[in-house]
Design a protein that fits this description.
This protein is an alpha/beta fold. Helix content is 34%, strand content 12%. The protein has a domain of 75 residues. It is built from 4 helices and 3 strands; from the N terminus they run H-E-E-H-E-H-H. Strands 2-1-3 form a 3-stranded parallel beta sheet, with helices on one face.
Length: 116
């Protein structure tokens, strides 16, 4: 049985410390807890992210990850899911990655209905 602590890397996040409006700490804790509850070993999941605060998630989670360019985490995650069908693929995006420069990828990812 895995625990959320199995997904901790000992690198201090650079997010706003003590800022109650910064939800990234809670998102990180939720990802770790969910991976443990799904009993996924660290090598069974992968994160795709772009740039920005939330997109530093691969640095703070003990699973494979890829930090791409702005607006492309969903396109990269789609490729990851298609190439590695047995892995759980998580895409981390911010407002720019998902709605601004990456808006077209957001639409096509929904249309393709890939398991991300």
């Amino acid at each position: 049985m895995l625990r959320p602590s199995d997904f901790i890397v000992y690198q201090k996040p650079t997010w706003c410390p003590g800022n109650p409006s910064c939800g990234n700490f809670h998102i990180l804790a939720t990802i770790r807890t969910t991976l443990a509850e799904l009993n996924l070993a660290p090598h069974q999941a992968i994160i795709s992210s772009g740039i920005g605060c939330g997109s530093k998630m691969p640095d703070y989670t003990k699973i494979n990850g890829f930090m791409g360019i702005h607006g492309r985490p969903l396109a990269v995650a789609s490729g990851m899911a298609l190439a590695n069908g047995e892995q759980v693929v998580i895409a981390i995006t911010g407002d720019g990655d998902g709605y601004a420069i990456g808006g077209n990828h957001f639409i096509h990812t929904m249309r393709r209905n890939i398991n991300i």
